[in-house]
Amino acid sequence: MNPTRRPNIVFVLTDDHAANAIGCYGSAVNATPGIDALAATGVRFDRALVENALCTPSRAAFLTGTYSHTSGVTTLATHLTNDHETFITALRAAGYRTAMFGKWHLGHGPAHDPAGFDHWEVLPDQGEYFDPEFYTPLGPVRHEGYVTDIITDRALAWMAAQGDEPYCVLVWHKAPHRPWLPHPRHADLFTDPIPLPPTFDDDYDGRGTPAHHATMRIADYLTDIDLKQDPPAELGYADRAVWKYQRYMQDYLRCVAAVDEGVQALTGFLRERSQFDDTVTIYASDQGFYLGEHGWFDKRFMYEESLRMPLVLSYPARVAAGSTDALVSNVDIAQTLLDFAGVDAPEGMQGHSLVGLVTEPDPIPVRDAHYYRFYEHDDHMHHVWAHYGVRTDRYKLIYYYADGMGLPNTGDTSYPPEWELFDLETDPYELTSVHLDPAYAGIRRELTLQLWDLQQELGDSPHPRQPVPEGRTR
Ligand SMILES: [Ca+2]
């Protein structure tokens, strides 16, 4: 490696792409040769977790290297103000050329437009799959074609125009976000039956009220817009659920196919120019997604399928290929990229650089517990309760504080908070909370303290409904 040469950075982020739909993560439902080839040259993170499984807050966490309570970007309605320092503003101040193409979803207008970029072209809010409009510093522009291809092509054109200065480009896709509109060239993919996940028929026995209360069940809550076809009239409830799963997954996985082709185009471009080894190339998603696990689509819950994001990092000049099960977070990415670029992280970033983790022979884990908080309490479409919790190597403790608001449309304002505790070693699918199991009393006590202390350490506050654990004060 030439130590005077700072790496280019190509950061591909997708929206709602679950690790369970990526070949190198053991997908049973599709192949992703582009992402797999990237992973084969770099590190696959098997326990990369988000701090808030929702598009807007997660994007803010990637950019600012802070948790939602710090950035103030807690829900879809709270947008990022552009007075925040981000890894982009820091890279640019250090001489990097910076650009952003694709889904921003952090707000528009003078207070929220992308800041710190030499160039940006972003979709308005969620954007459109076909013939999408993009907002740019010079006003809106519409491109004909398919959104995933356009984002990749616009990024490639910008990369091709760069000179000797190092650059950082964000290629942030809309896909495979709902309503999952694939390109017609992929219409023939996934016509064979797609295997069902083992928890497709989950009845939520063993979980608290929130899992029962959520309205994300494929059988009941996918809409006509999601499905695009009516189920055959002769099907009964169970068969119709499976039919809806197939329909959902076909379109979801076809959208992923275009993303994977985009990854191949980007890595192909870098390889053709002999830049691949000296480039930090990242593939990640803004959180995971339910692909029929627990009978669900969507995200939000702190359960593994949405808590976990795929994260692949390639930088052959400095990083040996492999995988790691260290607990890492989306708040770590900003400091990691700055560290690779040799740029000091702005004060106030709350993650950890992962550079040591992926370059040292016997790395020290960056954390022993991950903090999660989801704020959108009982929204009208998904009805997931707000909650926070801690996940360690083996256990997960979740507190649903119910916000003191009760269930909607019931007049009930006194619904009690609930806890869940999972032993991920004996119960990897999180089917049975052991919170009240006397055998786990010691673990429960320990995790409750760990959660309390982690909130203090990160500057968040426990919800007023949460009792103060013994040995601590509010
Ligand atoms: Ca998302």
UniProtKB/TrEMBL annotation:
Could you tell me which species this protein originates from? Microbacterium panaciterrae
Recorded protein name is Sulfatase
- Name of one Pfam family that matches: SGSH_C
Q: Which residues form the N-sulphoglucosamine sulphohydrolase C-terminal domain?
A: 292-456
For this UniProt record, give its keywords in alphabetical order, as a comma-separated list.
Hydrolase
Q: Which family does it belong to?
A: Belongs to the sulfatase family.
Q: Which CDD domains match?
A: G6S_like
